[in-house]
Amino acid sequence: GDQAELLRKKLEIHVKGDVIPAPIVAFSSCALPQKLLQNIETAGYGMPTPVQMQVIPAALDGKSLLVSADTGSGKTASFLIPIISHCANFRRSNFSNHKKPIAVVLTPTRELCIQVEDNAKLLGKGLPFKTALVVGGDPMARQLYRIQQGVELIIGTPGRLIDLLTKHDVELNDVKIFGLDEVDCILQRGFRDQVMQIFRALSQPQVLMYSATISQDIEKIASFMAKDVTVVSIGKPNR
Ligand code: ADP
Ligand code: MG
């Protein structure tokens, strides 16, 4: 309503497309696992950053988003917090012998994947979910073994994940959230076909896509992957 609009204006949050929930001003305003809220506090995150204020409630609501915000604005936690929440809640209600991943995050480089995984460990400490890092430079057999033992979240580069998908049958059809960090860089590196191939292995996931700039091309990819994508850009109008 009007309150949401006022808050967005003040925080320079621009929203275009499908209606999404209002920004939150405190992490505790969202129904997050208690342990996750504790980890957020321990990490020293007093207040959510503007991108987190808008993305976290919308992502928890199941919305697919195309997000643009400056470097250093806290985008990683904006997708990891909803993903960790999903993974933790999923495990709790399905503590049977569930083995397949339920979330995938792609980034353009091994280094970025490691950073995202470090963040996931920090924010996910003590929560019942496992991650697998799927990047070049580490033995594929070890990554495959870890996935086969059962992980909720895969964090990887498109090239290595495609290797695993095509050479071994890693099943991604239970993946509910597909995160794409720095998607403009992923595409610049020539990974478009791999990203599309990975997407086709998923079954209509929620998409959380991040890009430094929102080009028509990237908007097209986002709306190909999910219907009703909302574009969220922070600090500057999205065009
Ligand atoms: P981006 O991906 O937008 O470039 P990052 O997600 O890497 O930025 O975050 C930049 C830095 O800000 C990191 O050191 C991260 O730990 C920190 N950070 C993230 N969210 C918060 C927050 N709510 N409060 C304080 N620091 C935060
Ligand atoms: Mg980032």
UniProtKB/TrEMBL annotation:
A molecular function GO annotation: mRNA binding
Domain of life: Eukaryota
Domain DEAD-box RNA helicase Q: residue ranges: 25-53
Keywords: ATP-binding, Helicase, Hydrolase, Nucleotide-binding, RNA-binding
Annotated ranges, domain Helicase ATP-binding: 56-232
Protein family: Belongs to the DEAD box helicase family. DDX59 subfamily.
Protein known as: RNA helicase
Annotated source species: Theobroma cacao (Cacao)
From-to range in the entire protein, with total length: 113 to 351 of 543
